[in-house]
Amino acid sequence: MTNRYVYGITDGEPVEFETDAVGGADRVYTVSHRRLNAVVSDIDTTDPEETDEDAQRHDDVLREIMDRDGVPGIVPMQFGMAFESDRELKNVLRGARPAFRRALNDVEGRIELGLKIVREEDADVDGDALENAVEDALDPIAAQSVPNDLFSDRLVLNRSYLVDRDARGQFDEAIADLEEEYDDLMFRYTGPFAPYSFVDVTIGAQR
């Protein structure tokens, strides 16, 4: 397994640990260039198949990195980013360095949290009023927020929030207050996740 599968980019301490990684690998480590660390594992292809098992391993590795001391933030990569060599990967890090630096500054010390609010089948909900109430409660705590698709008729609100780790407790309390106020609605509060919704850096292997 000579190729490098990339989970994300950090600028903290290099990491190395054993875990169940994508493609059957059992070790995660970093490939570094000028204080940018690509978190990788070895893989035998540059075009990995996105199975449910490997997609979960990808997310699990990102969560483990986020929980480690010395890693202030991570710019997550979408599933499937793999390179043929360290040299190729370092060339990409060099070319995208300004974009990664900006993204890392945005997500340092922060996590992504998700909120979906679902109504009962025949319930009549004032979506605008609810959205305003949620905005008033959560936006002052969050660093950023973005809307997601309302993929179901019953889904009244679907947003992702970028929240300082230190503000997580305050955010949890605000969610609990909203749930109590709108006890006729179902709240699906998820996370923490790597901040996929708040970075826009795409890298690709040069072949």
TrEMBL record:
GO cellular component: gas vesicle
Transmembrane domains' residue ranges: none
Record's keyword terms, sorted: Gas vesicle
Top-rank taxon, per record: Archaea
Pfam families named among the record's database cross-references: GvpL_GvpF
UniProt subcellular location: Gas vesicle
GO BP: gas vesicle organization
Family: Belongs to the gas vesicle GvpF/GvpL family.
Protein name: GvpL/GvpF family gas vesicle protein
Organism: Haloterrigena alkaliphila
Lineage: Archaea, Methanobacteriati, Methanobacteriota, Stenosarchaea group, Halobacteria
